[in-house]
Amino acid sequence: MERAPASQEDLGAERGMTDDIFDTSYHEKEGPKPARRYVWRNIVLMSLLHAGALYGLWLGAAPQTPPHAQGFLCFLLSFLGVTAGAHRLWSHRSYKASLPLRVFGSFCPPCSLQNDIYEWARDHRVHHKFSETNADPHNATRGFFFSHIGWLLVRKHPDVLEKGSKLELADLKADKVVMFQRRFYKPSVVVMCFLLPTLVPWCCWGESLCNSFFLPAILRYVLVLNASWLVNSAAHMFGNRPYDRTINPRENRLVTLGALGEGFHNYHHTFPYDYATSEFGWHYNFTTAFIDLMCLLGLASDRKKVSREVVLARKIRTGDGSHKTG
Ligand SMILES: [Zn+2]
Ligand SMILES: [Zn+2]
């Protein structure tokens, strides 16, 4: 089925970049597929992390283990760094954030990202621009496993590298917070992702070192990773398409719940510049509530929102009819 042309590009252009708007001119090259090259370092690392998370689950389920409210808080904070920071702010420029909020946002992603903000935002823009093609880093047409975690275990498809290198990314390069975080990404991961979540409960309220390492550090990290990967996998496969039936991304309530509001994915790919990633405001959307709170506190501004009329017109024009249009 032919993909519907993007609408509201004027609103997208208002942000100073349109790299996340689907590019209809790209066509996959004919010929044999490039050889699959495994990245063994990532395979070993991910295997160890997931084995550690399973052990953390076993520890957490033990009756003598106290409830880990701080682990949940750490999950929320680190995940917000991905959803409100790396995704809605830096990848899509869907609102503006003050310096203190950007500094805070750059501290959270090392707890939960696979890459630094610059690389994450570049890959995410390529994902939107060339969605479901060879140039999409986690192309969901290659199956659930590939779009979930497999794409991190193999070398990128040449088209991903080529298209990624052609993005200008001037806004990211001009953002000193982003470039500082990129420069010190590796040590910040060690400190923010593993050391702090382990040392704080161990030193401050006498949690055992083993529990502190495997619950708020390892298990929490793996849960954040998998919840964000579900947006690339499940939300591209399961659910309805009320805004654009010609694209793969879907509205997936389970992903929405687990990923702090990031599962309204058919809406998000249709209107990537909308800061709420949904037409329903705070409904199942913790990230939108957080951004609104930051605006109330004067730490964020200039939220981009698609009008109700435009959403309704788009539903009628290209939706699958699964949402009421009246
Ligand atoms: Zn996005
Ligand atoms: Zn997507």
TrEMBL record:
The chain crosses the membrane at residues 38-58, 70-90, 189-208, 214-235. Residues 69-273 form the Fatty acid desaturase domain. It is an enzyme of class 1 (oxidoreductase). It is found in: Endoplasmic reticulum membrane. Its cofactor is Fe(2+). One of its GO terms (biological process) is unsaturated fatty acid biosynthetic process. Its EC number is 1.14.19.1. Keywords: Endoplasmic reticulum, Fatty acid biosynthesis, Fatty acid metabolism, Iron, Lipid biosynthesis, Lipid metabolism, Membrane, Metal-binding, Oxidoreductase, Transmembrane, Transmembrane helix. One of its GO terms (cellular component) is nucleolus. The keyword Chaperone does not apply. It holds the Pfam family FA_desaturase. The histidine box domains are involved in binding the catalytic metal ions. This is stearoyl-CoA 9-desaturase. It comes from Pelodiscus sinensis (Chinese softshell turtle).
